[in-house]
Sequence to fold (519 residues):
Amino acid sequence: MIRFSQVSKRYPGGYAALKNVSFEIASGEMIFLTGHSGAGKSTLLKLIAAIERPNGGTVLVNGQNIGKIRSGAVPYLRRNIGLIFQDHKLLFDRNLFDNVILPLQIAGFDHRESAKRVRAALDKVGLLKREKAVPIALSGGEQQRLCIARAIVNRPSILLADEPTGNLDADSANAIMDIFKSFHQVGATLLISTHDETLLRQYTGRGLALKQGELQQ
Amino acid sequence: MKSWFLQHLHVMQFTLRKLRTTPVSSLLNVLVIGVALSLPTGGYVLLQNVQSLSDKLVGTPQISVFLSMGVSQDEINRFSKQLEQHAAISHVEFVPREQALLQLQHSTGLADVTGGLAQNPLPHAFIVYPKDNDAKKMESLRDELRSWPKFEHVQLDSAWARKLEGLLKFGRLAVLILAVLLSFALVAITFNTIRLQILTQREEIEVAKLIGASNGFIRRPFLYFGLVQGLLGGSAAWLIITVSLALLNASLSDLTHLYASNFSLQHLTAGDSFTLLLFAAYLGWLGALLSVTQHLWQIESR
Fold:
């Protein structure tokens, strides 16, 4: 589903974020991406979503080569990837329902079908009763759950989460990990980056460890 | 197809909602566009009216020959024959002085003035229709007729019409220049409005791109906004002209009444009105397109 072969990414100014990284993730796997901040976790996730392009090597996602993908095809790639951001990237000018429906509007679903899916996604993350609230009224953990609801509403086959539990207390973090586990059970491919070692010990699953841009074996 | 249509419908509703949420600035924008468009359009309307007026007055070009006051009937017959046989003349019409006075009373609304005259001041006249409407040939015919005896005054009636035509040409050019300049202004106004919108919605645009929005999807609401704003501005211009013409006609009717004429300024034709709206909408759309292309590229390259 996702394959990196000898991928390197250098940012303008010469900073090498990833050096010669190779790995493969099969469909339906749940992978933890670990490493200190600055190890290249975010860069790796950005390459998968074509937010950044590799300088060397090939990144294949669903059979598409990210290094060579046309910019016109990027939106369609992203519609099959759910992105969960550490800073949530919610829109504060609209309520929960309108935040979650955005990917469906973009994909051109009709409104009635969209509304059903939005409510299902909000129910999944435990925010259904607050669909009319605005994001500013939510706690940090709730905002992260809202971000997850928006990422899954389009039923993507790949979920990428960048430090989803980064700023949360243990209870909220566990709630979010439980949500991820339930997606894993229905067959989604998950790649979750974290620097939280204690969280990792509670879950079994393959890990990818990055250190200064290189993959540790 | 249906989802495409629904998406556009959705964007349209969204645009109208956005216009309503900022009523004051929307109204001001629409007014500025309306005023900018109404200037050249108003000029065009006035020129059209002058044009139709001059068309009505001129008709086909002709040469008026006014005879000396004391000319006899024999002489008139002889002149008439000579003119009929002239190679450059297609036909001739004799206007006796009595008939000329009647015509004057009826056509130009000077009945009150002529009624007060003690005697008919008008001479007998011939109206000469040249075979060729070419300006130079008509002028040489006029000069030839001037040399005939007892031909007191020979006048080429199209001369002033040609001067007017020249003036109208000048006016049309001025209106065109004004229209081009103000079209740029309209595009600039829309460009700037959309720029501000993009800046305030930058976050939303970035998020939308991250979750799979195509450039077309992001552009669409802004293009619609430009289009609708242009269309409303065009409608405002049309209204401004309608109201102005009504006011002008009201005061004009007092004036024309004095001259016993029923002249009034004509509004834009349906076709011209449609063109105005279409053009305004197009310019709004164009300004939005330029703005959104420029600024989306900036967001992309960040």
Remarks:
- The longest strand of chain A covers residues 16-25.
- Residues 108 and 114 of chain A are 9 Å apart (CA to CA).
